[in-house]
Amino acid sequence: MNGRLLYYNPWNDLALAANVARFTPPAGAVAMADGGALLPLWWAKPDDYVFARPEMATAAGQICRRFNLNGSIFSDSMHTAGLRPSPWGWSRATRSVFASAGIEAAILPSDKELDTMRSLSHRELTAEVHRQLGTPEGLIPHRADTAEEAISLIHQAGNAVIKLPWSCSGRGVMFSSRIPPQELHRRISGMIRRQGSVMIEPQYTPRAEYGALYLSSATGVQLQGFSKTISSADGKYAGNIAAPQSYIISEAGDEITSTARNMEPILTRLFSGKYNGWLGVDMLLHSKGLNPCMEINLRMTMGVAAMFIADRLYPHAGKGVIYTSPRMTGGADINLSPTGVGLTVAFTPN
């Protein structure tokens, strides 16, 4: 074997926060992982294997034939020699999963490498990108290690967004304007008790959210494409537009595309040689302009997945939306990961 062993573990940001090898994801994260277990087939190559339950093999074969996808379901009886681990994201818990599957320790990340990736995944890295882009100091996110420090920063910002260092899909995010003043200190104290710090940044009225998608390697960080995200009013992930890159780039406009290119050397200085793999930078168009670096996701993202899925879907389907739901919502929807369990990950054309 000389392919990859692909693994969809959307709970990885939570595992980074816990920083333990034996991590039990919450029920919602388990449902997402179960429902999306076959998603890696959309970016698998012919020699690749996907971590999924054996009973999902029939559905995997059907969707591969329908959309000319590659990859096969990994079986515990297979030899792993030559297989390269390729998860959604790296953490101590992820490494344990691959080690249990028989992947050689020599090709798994060391403790030091995992510590580096965890540190680089902390949301405070967004502040460094802002500084190197020349963002005015008053608009740069700030780290707070105490509730008192956080509340002082909130008062300076007016309405502010409060974020945990490690979280995903818009969870671990609070808006100061929606919390009674008498509750604010208690809630922030709880967040700091769980993860050691919080990030405080200005709150904006959103217009559109895009992702700049990069690959990091020893030779540098290179822009690969763009995504458009759909979020709920409280900032939680609701879906992605799946469409040709030409459409996404046209929608994004010159400011976003040029800013994303300007970030390449900055991200190269931060990540090259320390992290190999996909990373996404969330960019927010808002009522006062552009927040060029709302978040950095040091892992595979749904934006990257949407880019691969869009490439595979055409000409089978037109532009549409990738969404997650307990069940399908329309007869024309395409189940992108027909596992039969967990949350459905589907594409609905529009």
Write the layout of secondary structure elements.
Blueprint: E1 4-7, H1 12-18, H2 27-35, E2 49-50, H3 57-67, E3 72-73, E4 84-87, H4 92-100, H5 111-121, H6 125-133, E5 142-144, H7 147-157, E6 160-163, E7 173-175, H8 181-195, E8 198-202, E9 206-217, E10 220-231, E11 237-242, H9 245-252, H10 254-271, E12 277-286, E13 289-297, H11 302-313, E14 320-325, E15 334-335, E16 344-349
Parallel strand pairs: 1-2, 1-4, 2-3
Antiparallel strand pairs: 5-8, 6-7, 6-8, 9-10, 9-12, 10-11, 11-14, 12-13, 14-16, 15-16
Instruction: Please report the distance between the alpha carbons of the first and last residues.
Output: 40 Å
**Shape assignment:** globular
The percent range for strand residues is 25-35%
* Gyration radius over CA: 20 Å
| Amount of helix | 25-40%
Helix/strand order, N-terminal first: EHHEHEEHHHEHEEHEEEEHHEEHEEE
Low-confidence stretches: none
Which structural class is indicated by helix and strand composition?
Answer: alpha+beta
Average residue-wise pLDDT = 94
Strand order of the largest sheet: 13-12-9-10-11-14-16-15
Oligomer: single chain
Q: Give the biggest sheet.
A: 8 strands, antiparallel
How many H/I helices? Answer: 11
Number of strands: 16
Write up what this structure looks like.
The chain has about 350 residues and is an alpha+beta fold. It contains eleven helices and 16 strands. A hairpin with a 5-residue loop joins β10 (about 220-230) and β11 (about 235-240). The longest helix is centred in the last third of the chain and has 18 residues, at about 255-270. The termini are far apart.
